[in-house]
Write a structure and sequence with these properties.
- By secondary structure, the chain is an alpha/beta fold.
- It has a single domain (3-193), classed as 2-Layer Sandwich (Nucleotidyltransferase, domain 5), CATH 3.30.420.
- The chain contains six helices and six strands, in the order ββββαβαβαααα.
- A hairpin with a 5-residue loop joins β2 (14-18) and β3.
Length: 202
Amino acid sequence: MIVSDSPPAPGGPILGIDPGSVHTGYGLIQTSGHKFTVLTLGTVSPKTSLEFAQRLAYIHRSVLNLITTFQPSAMALEDVFTHKNPKSAFKLAHARAAAMLAAALSNVPVFEYSPTLIKNSITGTGRADKGQVAFMVSSVLGLSEPQPPDVTDALAVAICHAGQESMPLVTARMASGNRGTSWRRLSPEDLLALGYKIDPNS
């Protein structure tokens, strides 16, 4: 498996993954300059009645199917971080490995980015919360409505990956028709009214 810190090769689709044993978010984008097109997005949600090993197998097969269908040039994930709950961290690590194994078997390079870098790439600051990141992800991609947090996080890491070969996204011109309002001009109440949940602990 290739785990790299080098800039991505331009041109190919980018698969962002937000792994989880209950819900694994995914978002696949195509880039052209500073224009981003969403090819597909959603969540992989194995039945909770399945044994944990079978849930991991379901995640692995689902991600492998995405790779086979869309032939991404790279997979991007958030870097490993310390979780407050060791049991949750254990399950997250296994789900992460299931997704990464799908990339490895398909010879798709895997790139990892810190949460701070992802937030900075999307909003211009590493201290942005999930609601602010979600708003800017929707703005950059021209999404008509808020997406589940797992999907938003997957799209955010895909955009972060794309941004490593270009200027910071916060300074790039958004595609025509996208929201042009910066999250910095919005109060928490404004974001909530738009459907973006604010997590004070993020």
